[in-house]
Design brief:
This protein is an alpha/beta fold. The longest helix is centred in the middle third of the chain and has 15 residues. It starts with 5 loop residues before the first strand and ends in a 7-residue tail after the last strand. The chain is globular and about 70 Å long. It is built from 9 helices and 17 strands.
Length: 368
């Protein structure tokens, strides 16, 4: 059954959504219940007269987050492990969409094409009946629904590491440091990478004066990449081959987790407080946590979004940040000066005018 309603509720109350898989007798299959943070999945009653028949063997893959990249990576891949365990006769992945009114983002097809290159995709937009439908467990955290480093997930993602960093892999234009299409070996790939948010739309949240961080990182010998300008394959290739990675906190960390290894060192520049879910997820895949504390002094949040700072503009203590990065071996040069206060105010005013939103200081931001 597709998702037909999703009702938000203010915490601590949980929201509700339907959608799921059913036995032939009309009872909901417990394994199809989707764990999702702040929501309960409650399938609605099934009426057999509504069903359309699909022959063959299929695998139920749960909810597809069809718009937000980070939630797609964390919430929509945790049943795909089943394809490595089942007969090749199971040749179709069946999802229901989180939002049937929105188109499916291109990154969905690209990512699933890498993970399931010989599997058909079926998106349930109406009730369906299958000759055979396998319903694998959702190997994800039961509280927030985020995928983690279960051995079967790690086995599934091993092909990403094998395909992403191997010798003589042909890679298309790597914007920002490599042009043209040629044969690329591991030795050609950057060992120090900074994953920047500075070119994202300011509506998506970020760091004031983040282009200064780009500049500092280039001077330190880092290759600065902008994930939104790259293909999924290009990103995975870069992440798998790097030895030191610095991330401006964001969804790119979730994609990196799929190819992370314990030999890498990873520092995060936080734009909010330190978010433990990132550390938990990376640690579950590698056994090794993230480096870096929050050096956020203030987060300016668009007025309608208060009290959620996810779309806010962060003011960082650049000196404290660079001090910690130096202590952990991510910087070798001098410490960074804080941007002038007037420049920060002007940037925020420009963002406010461009987005048509008033920004106010978020009261709950603390360092930690």
């Amino acid at each position: 059954m597709p998702l037909t309603k999703l009702e938000f509720a203010a915490p601590p109350t949980k929201g509700l959504f339907d959608g799921g898989a059913y036995y032939e007798n009309g009872n909901a299959c417990p394994l199809s219940i989707q764990a999702k943070g702040s929501y309960d999945n409650i399938p609605k009653p099934l009426h057999s007269s509504e069903l359309n028949h699909f022959p063959g063997r299929h695998v139920f893959c749960g909810m597809l987050q069809n718009e937000h990249f980070g939630h797609f990576i964390t919430e929509s891949l945790s049943r795909l492990w089943a394809f490595d365990q089942l007969s090749p006769k199971f040749d179709t992945a069946v999802f229901y969409l989180r939002d049937r009114q929105r188109p499916i983002a291109p990154f969905v097809f690209e990512t699933l094409g890498i993970l399931l290159p010989h599997i058909n995709l079926l998106f349930a937009d109406r009730p369906m009946r299958f000759d055979t439908l396998a319903v694998p467990a959702q190997l994800a955290n039961r509280d927030n629904g985020f995928i983690y480093g279960h051995p079967l997930n790690i086995e599934m993602f091993r092909r990403l590491r094998q395909n992403s960093g191997g010798p003589a892999r042909k890679i298309g234009a790597m914007r920002g440091y490599m042009s043209g299409s040629r044969q690329v070996h591991n030795d050609d790939l950057p060992k120090k990478v900074y994953v920047s948010r500075s070119r994202l739309s300011k509506r998506q949240g970020g760091i004031l004066s983040d282009q200064m961080i780009d500049h500092h990182m280039v001077r330190e010998g880092y290759t600065v990449i902008y994930p939104e300008t790259m293909s999924i394959s290009e990103q995975l290739t870069i992440y798998a081959a790097a030895e030191k990675l610095v991330f401006s906190e964001g969804s790119a960390l979730h994609l990196y987790a799929l190819v992370a290894n314990a030999k890498q060192s990873v520092f995060v520049i936080w734009r909010r407080t330190r978010t433990l879910v990132f550390d938990w997820q990376i640690r579950s895949f590698t056994g090794k946590g993230l480096i870096g504390n929050s050096h956020t002094a203030t987060v300016w949040v668009p007025k309608p979004d208060i009290p959620d700072p996810v779309h806010g503009q962060a003011v960082l203590d650049f000196t404290a940040l660079s001090t910690e990065m130096q202590q952990h071996g991510f910087l070798e040069g001098g410490l960074w000066d804080n941007p002038p206060q007037q420049a920060m105010e002007e940037q925020l005013a420009t963002i406010s005018a461009a987005t048509g939103r008033e920004y106010l200081p978020f009261p709950a931001v603390t360092q930690g």
